[in-house]
Amino acid sequence: MASFQIYALNAHELMPLNKVFKRPGVEKTAAIVAEHPIGDMDHPDASEQHDRQTPAEQAYRAIEQLTERPLALLAEQVMTSPVVILTPEASITEALRQFQKNAFRHIPVVTSAGRLVGIISDRDILRYLAGLSESYQRQIPHTRDARVEQLMTPQVLTASADTDVRHIARLFVEQHIGAMPIVKNGKLEGIITRSDVLGTVMRHYALELWA
Prior knowledge:
- With about 210 residues, the chain is α+β, with helices and mostly antiparallel strands.
- The protein has 8 helices and 7 strands.
């Protein structure tokens, strides 16, 4: 069953969809009452209605009727796997080396036992080395002696392998997330980034992102 979970250093928590997504801002509208009953004479004949459609409208309707199969893709079909990881004890120098080598923006942090405990971004490291706080206040510049666990985000929102990619894409927009680890049976199986979602849209141009 598709699910989202938050993994942290000592625990993980199941996140239902109503907690993950923002609530819609549109209020429920009242029912519309017809001014007069609609009789049989008010309905145009189907063939007459079809004749009044423009060629473009007829073409769009034909495409809509081609298939009723949902166009959903699952996380395991889109994710990058295997995943380049860092351990909590890895140095900032090693993290920078991995970012430069692989051109990544985010790397999951996993213990030697295979447990996901955080995620680190290239922005986290650059801000740290520049001497900036999380709110971008000026501090004394740091050296590369720190360990990854000092900079990583310790709570990570993850998705299961059978999660609809459209849900993940929506979270990227609403929660300003750049990457999402994919966890299966408690183990890190893959990762999906914004670039992966964009590549999916390019390959599957009919993909409806907003589920």
